[in-house]
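Hi support team,

I've been running sequence recovery on a batch of backbones for a student project. Most finish fine, but this one hangs at about 90% for roughly twenty minutes before it completes. I'm not sure whether the input is malformed or the queue is just slow. I've pasted the structure tokens below so you can try to reproduce it. Let me know if you need the job ID as well.

Thanks,
M.K.
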């Protein structure tokens, strides 16, 4: 059974939302996947990104914030029966999937700064661990998401060839990040964020957040996952980086 959110108000269930998309947005605007028509809810309040069995909640710099199980949270690795409080509404996360990722893994972070003259875009890294594959994340208050397709779920646990992302511009030019894990979120929260996912069928990049799409080899992405090829150049939040497969 796919994970789902159960929307309630004052203890009364309103609707259920299966998490079948890579990224689910929550907010007051009608363009959101989950619309909550309440003045206490920001236009784009929060998002949930899902990869394999794992779902991650992120506050999209909302005005009034959100709570998870009664505790204020900016980002949160969701577990069965967690309750997300947004305004006067509650979203209960329900899943029967078993994940090997832990909240402790999700919180580990490391920060890299981009070109100073471009208002110092930031690439932030957090680590996750998953059942069949591992995860490597870039973004302090963000985490991404991507559901595996049916072929990935049925495929044997054979990982693709190892890959690396090398920073091409800014103070960290030349720095390499080996993609040893299964999730990598790159970018600057509030500006532009994308996610790399390591699947049995290869590496994919998916747009997560931002007023404009990042680009690969000069071509703008859309809201669908795009498979990466050897030596593709990604431009994101003012930083250029090259994806390449290790020999």
């Amino acid at each position: 059974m796919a994970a789902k959110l159960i929307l309630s108000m004052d203890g009364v269930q309103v609707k259920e939302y299966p998490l079948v998309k890579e990224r689910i947005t929550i907010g007051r605007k009608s363009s959101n996947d989950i619309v909550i028509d309440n003045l206490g809810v920001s236009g784009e309040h929060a998002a949930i990104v899902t990869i394999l069995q794992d779902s991650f909640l992120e506050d999209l710099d909302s005005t009034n914030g959100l709570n998870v199980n009664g505790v204020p949270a900016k980002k949160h690795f969701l577990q069965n029966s967690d309750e997300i409080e947004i305004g006067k509404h509650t979203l209960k996360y329900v899943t029967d999937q078993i994940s090997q990722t832990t909240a402790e893994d999700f919180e580990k972070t490391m920060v890299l700064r981009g070109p100073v003259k471009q208002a110092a875009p930031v690439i932030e890294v957090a680590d996750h661990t998953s059942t069949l594959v591992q995860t490597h994340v870039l973004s302090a208050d963000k985490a991404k998401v991507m559901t595996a397709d049916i072929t990935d779920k049925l495929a044997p646990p054979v990982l693709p060839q190892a890959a690396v992302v090398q920073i091409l511009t800014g103070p960290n030019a030349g720095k390499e990040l080996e993609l040893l894990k299964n999730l990598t979120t790159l970018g600057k929260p509030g500006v532009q964020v994308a996610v790399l996912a390591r699947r049995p069928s290869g590496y994919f990049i998916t747009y997560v957040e931002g007023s404009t799409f990042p680009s690969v080899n000069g071509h703008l992405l859309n809201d669908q996952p795009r498979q990466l090829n050897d030596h593709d150049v990604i431009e994101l939040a003012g930083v250029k980086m090259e994806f390449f497969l290790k020999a």
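--
Follow-up from support: It reproduced on our side and the slowdown came from queue contention, not your input. The longest strand covers residues 202-210. No action needed from you.
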